[in-house]
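no rush on this but wanted to send it before i forget. what follows is a protein written twice so to speak, once as letters and once as structure tokens for the fold. mainly i need to know what kind of three dimensional shape the backbone takes. thanks a lot i owe you, the record is right below.
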Amino acid sequence: MTSPTPGSAGSRTVLITGGAGGIGQGIARAFAAAGDRVILADRDAAAVAAAAEALGAEPLALDITDAASAAEALHGLAERGGVDALVNNAGILSVHGTVTELEPDAYRSILEVNVIGTFNMLQAFARHRIVAGGGGAVVNISSIGGRQPTPGMGAYESSKAAVDSVTRWAAIELAAHGIRVNAVAPGPVLTPMLEMGMPEGSPAREAWSSRIPLGDLAQVSDIAPAVVFLASGSAGHITGVSLAVDGGQLLT
């Protein structure tokens, strides 16, 4: 049993969480260019509606931390033709703090979205695909921070290490159903918001760039093709991997 592959327009339905953000929109554009029907999900109903309208996608207001809502969303989509691929892009980097200073509740807030939310969506999608007869693909958005720590960012980075672990866990258990589960692990990505805070030539931008052998932070357009590839039939014999897209930062 193999995962659905991109083909003519409307050949697949792809659900992308965190769809109102810069990376989510970039991934959506790449899938749409491959001829896929795209559904953008986000907790911010107004923002995701605007993003979906601009991209010609379908909006879905959804809080991924609510397991019942995730299950209900997939059930509703199943009644409208189902979902072939899930991109677990939603995540937050909301707090910073050292291991001796970070408040447990602040840490918990990141885990709730980045780990539990990812799990909720993956579980709901897997159940949906099994009922549908199997097949399908999941791509989780992780981070190289899960493998290369940065002081003060341990809460976020350990949540992404957990995403990598969940990816492997799901991949080994869902393989029997023909469901592939992989991850893309970017380094820092120049979303519009990040670029405003770290414009080219700024000390902060130079500090990050100096850690990257290829010389600069990733563009959103560097991340999206890797996601589309791992969700496609071209990656039909790949499951359980976390693909670094980091300009070589893990080499340093």
